[in-house]
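ok, trying the design again with the full structure, not the truncated one.
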């Protein structure tokens, strides 16, 4: 089968990239898009894409990183970030996509306008580069859609948590949805998959997080769990589902 993981984090310290990529290949994964979150992480993403032929780089600026927020000893700390430096890095890095980017209002509402301003700059960069956006929209689904629905840039809503009305808005705007393996646990992703045309669905893991197994870290090989659930919902074979999603990947990227 032709498997693809459009969103994971192979740079995470919990992951042994070499072992994870080897297992992904054995499982039939043909492409892994590993997403960057800040300047230093983007450098690591680019290095991994040089080491492994199936790993493709998405360079980004995670919403919290975009405004200099980080967690230290469980507390949210505000630091500084050179946004223009990261945007230039993304442009020069020639990634397959721009991600992980977006807006996150879960942890603090003190920097809403800053997050929105940075995301607007990123959207303009995506338009300039003609690259898809891989979008994080936690607790800010409506705000992200408001900013994205007038762009001609292709959009992937990663692990989208919005309600049915917002899912339909995304569908009307021809956005893609990447579905994580925890679709086997969360009925929300069943709803997204049911509503979304098969031609706009993709598979992701967000590894090492959101594992479908209680006792294992998530990894790209587990996109097979996404395919099982999507194929059941769409009432097609796993092979048919795999072929269509791989076609979606090629159409998008």
């Amino acid at each position: 089968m032709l498997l693809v993981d459009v969103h994971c984090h192979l740079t995470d310290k919990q992951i042994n990239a070499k072992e994870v990529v080897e297992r992904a290949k054995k499982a039939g994964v043909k492409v892994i898009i590993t997403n960057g979150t800040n300047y230093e992480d983007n450098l690591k993403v680019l290095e991994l894409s040089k080491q492994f032929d199936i790993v493709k780089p998405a360079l980004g600026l995670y919403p919290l990183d975009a405004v200099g927020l980080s967690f230290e000893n469980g507390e949210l700390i505000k630091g500084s970030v050179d946004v223009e430096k990261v945007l230039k890095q993304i442009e020069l890095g020639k990634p397959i996509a721009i991600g992980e980017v977006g807006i996150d209002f879960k942890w603090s509402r003190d920097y809403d306008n800053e997050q929105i301003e940075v995301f607007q700059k990123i959207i303009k960069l995506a338009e300039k580069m003609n690259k898809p956006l891989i979008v994080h929209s936690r607790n800010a689904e409506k705000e992200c859609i408001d900013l994205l629905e007038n762009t001609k840039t292709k959009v992937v809503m990663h692990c989208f948590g919005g309600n049915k009305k917002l899912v339909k808005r995304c569908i009307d705007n021809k956005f893609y949805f990447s579905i994580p393996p925890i679709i086997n646990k969360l009925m929300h992703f069943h709803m997204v998959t049911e509503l979304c045309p098969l031609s706009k669905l993709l598979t992701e893991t967000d590894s090492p997080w959101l594992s479908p197994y209680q006792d294992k870290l998530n990894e790209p090989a587990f996109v097979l769990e996404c395919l099982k659930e999507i194929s059941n919902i769409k009432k097609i074979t796993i092979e048919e589902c795999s072929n269509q999603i791989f076609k979606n990947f090629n159409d998008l990227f």
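Keeping the full-length input from now on. The beta strands are 3-8, 29-35, 55-59, 69-72, 75-78, 97-102, 133-136, 155-158, 176-179, 201-203.
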